[in-house]
Amino acid sequence: MPVKAPRLKPGDTIGIIAPGEHSTTSSDMQVGRALLEQHGFRVVFGSHVSDHYGYLAGEDAARADDFNALWTDKQIRAIFCWGAVWGAARLLSLIDFDSIRRQPKLFIGCGSVTAIHLAIARRADLITLHAPDFSTFYSSRYTLDAFMRALTSVEPFGDVGQPPPPDIPGVTDPPLITYVPGSASGRLTGGNLGAVVGSLGTPYEIQTEGRILFLEARDLPTFTVERHLTALWLAGKLQAAAGIVVGECVNCVTERGETNTFSLEEVLENRLPLLTVPSVYGLRLGQGKDTMPIPLGAQVRLDATARRLEILEAAANQST
User: Fold this and answer.
1) What is the value of pTM for the model shown?
2) How many angstroms separate the CA atoms of 248 and 234, rounded?
3) Domains, the chain, ranges and CATH?
4) Cα–Cα distance measured from residue 132 to residue 126, given in angstroms and rounded to the nearest whole number
């Protein structure tokens, strides 16, 4: 059974780290902090969140020090990532996984933070939250409400990824598409497509056997999406999964001037229907405006025919 962290309650402290890219929007710090405090939480920033080293928020050792220091601090009940577009995988050899096993905490992030999610899954078997980062968890009321529920509830989330009601009933963007009908259950794994592919051949390589594989992407040209899916195909990761959920692929389009290339839907149509496992595209999971946190490592049920993903257990357990 996977390990669960205690849920958050008013008065608990959330630690903020920047495990990857340096953020150039300092106002995010004030807005995010104010919202968390309005919901009754205390906020502590890592010592190096404002550092700047190339495109990164400080040197690797400094960013890892923030991660390890906040994780070992008994007053910190959750670790929330900020500005981690790229670079989080550089920390993996520096993370204290023994502390993670000893002191389970909610770990929250998306994008390249998927590298850390996968590493924690391999080394500590802890359920973590693939969720908007510190600058985007308030991108809409839908997202904020879902985010707070994920942090504080011990009830299963149920159906996820359905967007708010559209202006025109039955019309969504992206569309909801079933590529292979059927249903499957298993533990949820995955996250950002580029980070998932980056795990291949490492000690933290994604495990998909018998699991529901979730993939999302942002700001990738479609030829890169195709290349990443091909890598997962060649590694046997798509074939081994019990089911596949492709969430939002935000701004994943053909590059300007490109004509002899695939669209995103053509890329997916070229791969997913060749598999025998249920697969669906278009659930609001990933890095879009209206998105919902999902617990990586939790038991889920995919009904690709009905285009539904049901979360069967919460990310957290009762507070101690």
Assistant:
1) 0.94
2) 23
3) 5-155 (3.40.50.10740), 158-316 (3.50.30.60)
4) 19
